[in-house]
Amino acid sequence: MAKSSTSSLFSSISGKAFKGFGNLIKFLPTGTVFIFQFLNPLSTNNGHCSTVNKVFTSILVGLCGFSCAFTCFTDSYKGSDGLVHYGIATVKGLWPSPKSGSVDLSRYKLRIGDFVHAFFSVIVFAVLSLLDSNTVQCFYPSFESTEKALLMILPPVIGAISGTIFMAFPNTRHGIGYPSSDSSNSNSDDSS
After folding, report:
1. In Å, how far are 99, 124, 128, 148, 159 from 152, measured between CA atoms?
2. Mean pLDDT value of segment 20-26
3. What's the Cα-to-Cα distance from 106 to each of 102, 117, 138, 154, rounded to whole Å?
4. Helix (H) or strand (E) holding 76
């Protein structure tokens, strides 16, 4: 009897851990990170930057950071027509979605948790992008040799803090690039 209770407790804890890990993955869009990792060596000239490279890299970091934040405010649903529709969360509901049919779009209202998740997503991306070796060599080359300990410690610390926030306050949004929520599945009943 104690063995089955221990087994169910372990499966419950591991289920929560995997769900939290899934939420962490969901909040840092892999497509955005992939694009950054792919274009960063090109824009920084592998860390040997001229002024033009610095401008292009700054634009790349800004656009990718905006993408990380923006995806926290998008959501999707299956309409009465059976198709997946995407929109941006507003204070009144999901916008634009003229063909929602019987789906109540006011369920998808903007919440404070959306801003918290956007903030931490941008922070995680900023740490990933600004401490990338090519970016460091491009913008602040002496920093890599003098502050090596900071470069090694900061990413895991920021990741642990953000991961804790994402696990403590899970977000149920299914933004662009993620599977949609069913029209029968209430999306904003959670108070995160």
Report:
1. 49, 14, 12, 6, 12
2. 53
3. 12, 20, 46, 40
4. strand 74-78
Kindly tell me the burial class for residue 5, based on how many C-beta atoms sit within 10 Å of its own C-beta (0-12, 13-18, 19 or more): exposed
Distance CA 75, CA 171 (A): 11
Asked if 187 and 181 touch (Cβ cutoff 8 Å), the reply is: yes
pLDDT at 181 over 60: no
Residue 122: both structure tokens together: 């941008």
DSSP state of 182: P
What pLDDT is recorded for position 138?
92
Query: If 0-12 CB within 10 Å is exposed, 13-18 middle and 19+ buried, where does residue 166 land?
Result: buried
52 φ, ψ (degrees, to nearest 5): -65, -40
pLDDT top residue among 188 and 112:
112
Print burial letters for 79-93: b (CB count within 10 Å at least 16), e (below 16): beeeeebbbbbeeeb
φ, ψ of residue 142 to 5 degrees: the values are -75, -20
How many CB atoms lie under 10 A from the CB of residue 37?
Answer: 14
33: which 2 tokens?
């990170």
Establish how many alpha carbons lie within 13 A of residue 132's alpha carbon, considering only the half-sphere containing its beta carbon: 22
- More confident site: 99 or 175: 175
In 102-128, which positions are buried (b, 16+ CB within 10 angstroms) versus exposed (e)?
A: ebebebbebbebbebbbebbbbbbebb
